[in-house]
Amino acid sequence: MLRIDLAIADRTIYHNPALLKAFDTARSKTGRIHFLGMVSDGGVHSNINHLFVLLEAAKQHGVRKCFVHMFSDGVDTAPTSGARYVQKLLDNMKENCYGKLASVIGRYYSMDRDKKWDRTKIAYEAFTQGKESQKFSVENLIAFMEQKYSFPGGKDQSDEMMQPILLSPEGLISDDDTVVFFNTRGDRMEQLVETFAFKPPFETDFSPLNLHVFTMTAYRWNWPFPVLFPLVSMKNVLAEHLAKQGVAQFHCAETERFPQVTTWFNGGVQHAFEKEERLMIPSPSIPLVVSPTVQPAYDLKPDMSCMEVAVEVSEIIAGTKFPFVLCNLCPPDLVAHTGAIGPTIEAVAATDKAIGVIRRACEMHGYVLCVVGTYGNAEKVDASSTAHTTSKGDMLEDGTLCSHGYL
User: Fold this and answer.
1) How are strands ordered across the β-sheet holding 212-217?
2) Cβ atoms of 308 and 354 closer than 8 Å
3) Using CA atoms in the order 9, 15, 17, 18, what is the torsion angle rounded to 10 degrees?
4) Distance CA 112, CA 120 (A)
5) Are 357 and 350 in contact (CB under 8 A)?
6) Which of 44, 153, 274, 320 has the fewest CB atoms below 10 angstroms from its CB?
């Protein structure tokens, strides 16, 4: 993110080879470019200021028509702050006399990473067909979103769950268009990009042909299309160091947090190191109901799959094959993002029980247990505050180092 922030700040991104290629392609093909990504200043997956400079650059390089497809946030920012970001974007477009906001959709649909293709399909068809989209003018958009926030009887709709809104039929993605995905983090972009860059893994009425796809960062290392900021791998991170020492290691998490124990922990390297084994436990499948009053999320199953992860990890510990075992228990984070305090308490309790299972296995088989807190949000969750906090992350160590291993 720092590398991108610096290129945005000093405008060297104007000369980025991949971005210039995107502009050249757009000009030589349909004259149309689409920017897709999350529009907020949460800074976890994207930054609205990046989009502003991309729009400036597209105008400067003479791309005739430019459309923005906005993913509303509500997780890394306040749940009902999306209308404010819409206003900032519209003000920027008006000031620069360039660009159109074509559509808005909640990140719940556009940024799924749990293979829930029914969600991705809704986003894909909204961007290409306007299907299932509520049609509004840009002038009425903010009032409409604010109305959604204050639905009576507890039936309000947050930015995360915002259902598709079509603002410009002209901005639907069509054959031979150029498409730039500007999120900086790839784990929640892979599914959506896959549907545009390759054949969608679902039935749909229309798929635009010959799209020219570009991404802000390398969402997957082996994808063939241009990347504005290619991967820079960190060297000699813990997993790599263990591999160099010939230490067997085991990494485990449920689907929602599998990238954290694999690609992220390995310093941006997607493949496993030597003697590294991995196991992904499926996250619960929460039914998707397309309705303005239903917001399916993990508050419906606050324990998620943390006990399943704990049981698998305890069995691995019992086998003593792996001196280093890594896992992620994610319910407090993901359930707290819903803003539901009761389920969040249940999530914390379930995680505590799961840690207990792992701790007993460590005690029985001579492992040291290290519990590390990352970012916060469960400690101060409420309906109006669901984003991560900057509370200090504690690290607790239990046991004495002996012959078998470390978790």
Assistant:
1) 134-135, 165-166, 100-106, 65-72, 32-38, 178-181, 212-217, 227-229
2) no
3) 50
4) 7
5) no
6) 153
Q: Print burial letters for 249-259: b (CB count within 10 Å at least 16), e (below 16).
A: bbbbbbbbbbb
Number of Cβ within 10 Å of residue 365's Cβ equals 17
Tokens of 306: 């943390």
Name the DSSP class of 320.
T
- 134-135 and 65-72 beta bridge pairing: unpaired
Residue from 292, 49, 65 nearest 168 by CA: 65
DSSP-derived 3-state class of residue 212: strand
Task: Measure the CA–CA gap between 407 and 398, rounded to whole angstroms.
Answer: 10
Distance CA 35, CA 66 (A): 8
| CB contact at 8 A, 178 and 195 | no
* 3-state class (DSSP) for residue 326: strand
pLDDT at 33 over 90: yes
Comparing 103 with 401, which gets the higher pLDDT?
103
Whole-number pLDDT of residue 384: 65
Q: Which residues pair with 106 in a beta bridge?
A: 72
Mean pLDDT across the stretch 77-88?
95
What pTM, to 2 d.p., does this model score? 0.76
SS3 36: strand
Q: What distance in Å separates the CA atoms of residue 215 and residue 184, rounded to the nearest whole number?
A: 8
Strands 395-398 and 367-372: antiparallel
